[in-house]
Amino acid sequence: MQRRNFLKSLALTPVMVAGANAKSSDSTKDGKKEKISLIDSSEFSKTKGKASIINLDKCDGCKGYEMPQCVSACKEKNAPRFPEPIKDIPQYFPRKIYEDYSKNRDDIFRLSPYNWTFVEELEIDSKKVFVPRRCMHCDDPTCQKICPFGIIGKDDNNAVNIDEHYCFGGAKCRDVCPWGIPQRQAGVGIYLKIAPKLAGGGTMSKCDMCADLLAQGKKPA
């Protein structure tokens, strides 16, 4: 399926990717009742194999806010885990270009090691659509299979995680990801102690579905 057709299908149909026990509830709008899909909080902690519900018909990119609330919540929750590179990042060999987003930490309009989700504004068939972009936590993640160091895991809640403590930043996970989700930051990670000059060093970062909160039976931030 072409990218445009894929996005078109997302725009016209609410994304019904959800964990079990999703229920319906009545909501009143302009004097009319409409059905909205909710996750029963009392059952949330008992459900294995979590995922997200994103209703693209309702998402408006959080108009009136400085940044989309999903982006704000993600940044606030994960800030302690954002990479802190050394001041003088060594140049690679043979290619001298490295990825350093540490000076653009406030950029919320793209994925980076400091912004694990962003909201993309699209226009499809004259309709404005806001699409949150972050890790999809695939059922059969190719990134996990391709990682040469075996540091990408998937837990019982379907959260796909990168262990940044042992990540070398090879970026093969990004290369095989259909959406190019994982992002690399140079100047941080185990590669500095083992092979600081080899091209491609750093750590990869992405959304982990708030795996620590899910493990406690709580909802993601």
TrEMBL record:
Localization of this protein: Cell envelope
Domain 4Fe-4S ferredoxin-type residue range list: 50-85, 126-157, 158-187
GO MF, one example: 4 iron, 4 sulfur cluster binding
Recorded GO CC terms: cell envelope
One protein family per Pfam: Fer4_11
Keywords: 4Fe-4S, Iron, Iron-sulfur, Metal-binding, Repeat
Record Gene3D superfamilies: 3.30.70.20
Source organism, top-level taxon: Bacteria
PROSITE patterns the record matches: 4FE4S_FER_2
Name listed for the protein in its UniProt record: 4Fe-4S ferredoxin-type domain-containing protein
Organism encoding this protein: Helicobacter cinaedi CCUG 18818 = ATCC BAA-847
